[in-house]
Amino acid sequence: MSTETIEKEPASKIELAPGVGGGGEIPTFDITLKVRRYNPEVSDDAHWDEWKLTMYGTDRVLDALHKVKWEHDGSVSFRRSCAHGVCGSDAMRINGRNRLACKTLLKDLDTSKPILVEPIKGLPVEKDLIVDMEPFFQSYREIMPFLVSKGHEPTSERLQSAEERERYDDTTKCILCAACTSSCPVFWTDGQYFGPAAIVNAHRFIFDSRDDAGDMRLEILNDKEGVWRCRTTFNCTEACPRGIQVTKAISEVKQAILTRKV
Amino acid sequence: MAVPIIESPRSGRVAPEYSRTSSSRGNFEMIAWLFMRLSGAILVVLIFVHLWTSMVAGDGINGVDFGFVAGKWASPIWQIWDLTMLWLAMLHGTNGVRVIINDYAEKNSTRMGLKAVLYASTVVIVILGTLVIFTFDPCPVIDGVAHVAEYCPTS
Q1: Is the ipTM of this structure higher than 0.90?
Q2: Lower CB density within 10 Å: C or N end of chain B?
Q3: How close does chain A come to B3, measured CA to CA in Å?
Q4: How big is the CA angle at A33 (ends A29 and A34), to the nearest 5 degrees?
Q5: Angle at A85 (CA atoms; ends A82, A91), nearest 5 degrees
Q6: What's the rounded mean pLDDT across residues A137-157?
Q7: Inter-chain touch A216–B102, beta carbons under 8 Å
């Protein structure tokens, strides 16, 4: 088969005439970013560092932190992995509220004032915006965040109706960013409270029809540092970047303990 | 059913001040939580009826004097009413302050000290109040002299 005319491949890059296409210029603005710095190898005291940056309307707080780290001061330390609100690594206190740096657009903040970025409260700070998450994960492990089932393993999948799945749908959204637990004033006091995140993840299994260890988890959360320390201040619900109704979930666990015991 | 223990890779690295040493079994916190809700609801009724009878009904606030209180406590219904109010309010308040101490004190020793003062004062006030309600005598005889008010039976 011989073809005389070989079709030319389309160009991989097309030069557009100036002024064609595009969504218009992205607005830029100047911001002042103030970051709470702490380095135990240099000083025991934390202090604020400040940078003036020119950012775009599409930028998030995480982009501003990147700009600082990559172009101004490489020693600024913070956690981030996916940078798209899924991994839960970059929870921090932005203007006094716990949020994910990767989900907070700069244009939604008051750019006329400095933007304050601090580590989340209630957990030991290791460096700059990095905190020791172990106490948080310890509580999470204690509530047994895995399926426990009695009896024989089914030959096929474990069946569940749409309604049964809906029962705990809200609490499946947790990404373990610790924004809720570190916004809780009871947790700030002494760090003994299990915290909203652990209770949310217990809720996810307690109300799962396929799970058989609900009673065990309720017993764990009936502890003096368990659900009864919740003061329903709703800080956690407000802080959750996934919009989980955290306080509602805690109340449902309280009710479950009550109906089981009384 | 034994819970299988799987050591996490970083376990043992939790800062000591965060580890929960005493795991409390028992339902004290749950009962305290439930008591706060129930006593609160009952107290709303008890207190507003109390306020209405002493401040609004009859002569209103002008009618409140020694005789008014004496008359009220002559009736067992008001004795029980006030006793319930005293006990519920004191326990409700004590538990509230206990919770505040737990939330705001950071050291266990501070907590212990503050709670000791709290419980001691609760016991004193509850006992005193209960005694007053049941031993209240509107027509006392002191040193053989009867201080006879106009409503006292003359013998």
Answers
A1: no
A2: C
A3: 9
A4: 160
A5: 95
A6: 90
A7: no
Q: Check residue A4 and give its pLDDT.
A: 63
Q: Is residue B118 part of a domain?
A: yes
Of the candidates B11, B18, B29, which has its C-beta nearest A228's C-beta? B29
CB contact under 8 A, B106 and A261: no
Total domains present in chain B? 1
CATH number of the domain at B60, please. 1.20.1300.10
Q: Which of A135, A137, A257 sits opposite B30 (nearest CB)?
A: A257
Asked if A189 and B24 come within 8 Å (Cβ–Cβ), the reply is no
Q: What is the mean pLDDT of residues B2-16?
A: 71
- Which one of B18, B99, B112 makes the best mutation probe of the A interface by having the most chain A beta carbons within 10 Å? B18
Q: What is the pLDDT of residue A179?
A: 96
**Alpha-carbon gap, residue A45 to A39, rounded angstroms:** 8
- Residue B4 domain-assigned (yes or no): no
Q: Using CA atoms, how far apart are residues A158 and A164, in angstroms rounded to an integer?
A: 12
In the block, which residue shows the tokens 């706060």? B36
pTM, two decimal places: 0.83
Is the residue at B11 inside a domain? no
Which residues from chain B sit within 8 angstroms of residue A137, using beta carbons?
Answer: 8, 10
- Structure-block tokens of residue B44: 């709303």
- pLDDT, one tens digit per residue, over B88-141 is 999 999 999 999 999 998 888 999 999 999 999 999 999 999 998 888 877 777
In a domain, B25, yes or no: no
Q: Which residues of B are less than 8 Å from A231 in CB distance?
A: 99, 103
